[in-house]
């Protein structure tokens, strides 16, 4: 039977995708595809306008999925596919209320982000940003090699505290074990209780102590390295606060690979200023990407700040793109997604 263009389900895609994923999408002649074909984020007005009558929307973490968008789309909307592991940009309660499914990509990026986490730990402990800064400014001639030049703490023997102990944290632990870390403490939404999932078979018979912390005070106080890897929720916002830094060891470093607002930036700047902690490695920060050159965090030589590139390997981004399209299509057909958030 003839299917008119009007009867094709409409899908909205808020960014240009990558090779295979784009080809998979383009091959779907049975869909009415509306795509923001750019590397830049789709303007909110464009999304609100084009969401009307959509059955599915593929979003980036920069697109807010809220009541306003769902209302603009209409009651036929069946599925949202997010090109991300984080879902703090999505009002999950609003989706649940309307019976809209949510796909995401929690497994595709684990290795890439865990690799970057190790890099940030080492960069923070070994003063990589500070050292490179001096070389780039031509200051090396004024600082010839000497025994204490640019010395910092060592990863071997460190106690590592994970705030959030999901896939990425556990994949980071796997990478850190060969460095000879001494102990791991972790805090989840269930303090004092063993982790819900053992993603890589590391927790049953660990070669070093791997223990749940009773509270954040214990985690902050014991750790030489604090890794923030938890989801951003109302209860984790600013959990790394002035009080948290006050409890940290003076030689400890903080690494955030999760979401900026988990860490209170003003408190971090103060902790670095007053040498309350040794250093920091951040892949995310509050108000990103709006960090102007005169932002106080950029005046901190012991802070490495990257522009949210944790999952930015070519292979990982390709896989995230493909899984996002697969989730979108599965959502339209009522089939199983690669990964779906249980709302
Ligand atoms: C995510 O997926 O949530 C990361 O922040 C970017 O890959």
Write structural notes for this entry.
The chain is of the alpha/beta class. It folds into 2 domains: 5-108 and 315-333, 3-Layer(aba) Sandwich (Rossmann fold), CATH 3.40.50.720; 110-305, NAD(P)-binding Rossmann-like Domain (Rossmann fold, 3-Layer(aba) Sandwich). It contains 11 helices and 12 strands. It has helices at 19-26, 44-50, 67-73, 92-97, 110-125, 128-136, 167-176, 216-222, 242-247, 265-273, 314-333; strands at 10-13, 32-35, 54-59, 79-82, 101-103, 159-163, 183-187, 210-212, 225-228, 253-256, 279-282, 303-305. Strands 8-7-6-9-10-11-12 form a 7-stranded parallel β-sheet. β4 (79-82), α4 and β5 (101-103) form a beta-alpha-beta unit. α2 runs parallel beside α3. The longest helix has 20 residues, at 314-333. The protein is globular, with a radius of gyration of 22 Å. The mean pLDDT is 96. The site of (2R)-2,3-dihydroxypropanoic acid has 7 residues, from loops. (2R)-2,3-dihydroxypropanoic acid binds at residues 61, 84-86, 109, 310-311. GO terms for molecular function: glyoxylate reductase (NADPH) activity; hydroxypyruvate reductase [NAD(P)H] activity; NAD binding. Residues 118-310 form the D-isomer specific 2-hydroxyacid dehydrogenase NAD-binding domain. Residues 11-341 form the D-isomer specific 2-hydroxyacid dehydrogenase catalytic domain. This is Glyoxylate reductase/hydroxypyruvate reductase.
């Amino acid at each position: 039977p003839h299917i008119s263009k009007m009867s094709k389900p409409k899908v909205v895609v808020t960014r240009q995708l990558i090779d295979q994923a784009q080809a998979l999408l383009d091959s779907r002649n049975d869909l009415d595809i509306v795509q923001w074909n750019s590397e830049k984020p789709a303007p909110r007005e464009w999304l609100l306008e084009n969401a009307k009558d959509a059955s599915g929307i593929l979003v980036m973490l920069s697109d807010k999925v809220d009541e306003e968008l769902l209302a603009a789309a209409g009651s036929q909307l069946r599925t949202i596919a997010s090109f991300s592991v984080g879902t703090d940009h999505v009002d999950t309660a609003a989706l649940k209320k309307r019976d809209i499914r949510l796909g995401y990509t929690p497994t595709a990026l684990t290795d890439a982000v865990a690799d970057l986490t190790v890099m940030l730990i080492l960069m923070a402990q070994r003063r990589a940003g500070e050292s490179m800064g001096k070389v780039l400014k031509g200051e090396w001639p004024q600082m010839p090699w000497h025994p204490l030049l640019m010395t910092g703490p060592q990863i071997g023997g460190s106690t590592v505290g994970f705030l959030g102990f999901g896939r990425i944290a556990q994949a980071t632990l796997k990478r850190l074990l060969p460095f000879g870390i001494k102990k791991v403490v972790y805090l989840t939404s269930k303090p004092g209780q063993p982790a819900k999932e053992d993603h890589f078979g590391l927790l049953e018979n660990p070669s070093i102590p791997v223990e749940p912390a009773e509270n954040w005070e214990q985690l902050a106080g014991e750790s030489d390295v604090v890794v923030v890897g938890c989801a951003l929720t109302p209860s984790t916002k600013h959990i790394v606060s002035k009080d948290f830094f006050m409890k940290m060891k003076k030689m400890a470093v903080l690494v955030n690979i999760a979401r900026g607002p988990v860490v209170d930036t003003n408190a971090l700047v103060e902790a670095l200023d007053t040498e309350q902690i040794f250093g920091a490695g951040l892949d995310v920060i509050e108000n990103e990407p709006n960090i102007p050159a005169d932002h106080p965090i950029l005046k901190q030589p012991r802070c490495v700040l990257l522009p949210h590139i944790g999952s930015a390997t070519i292979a990982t981004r390709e896989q995230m793109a493909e899984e996002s399209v697969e989730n979108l299509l599965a959502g339209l057909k009522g089939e199983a997604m690669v990964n779906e958030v249980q709302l």
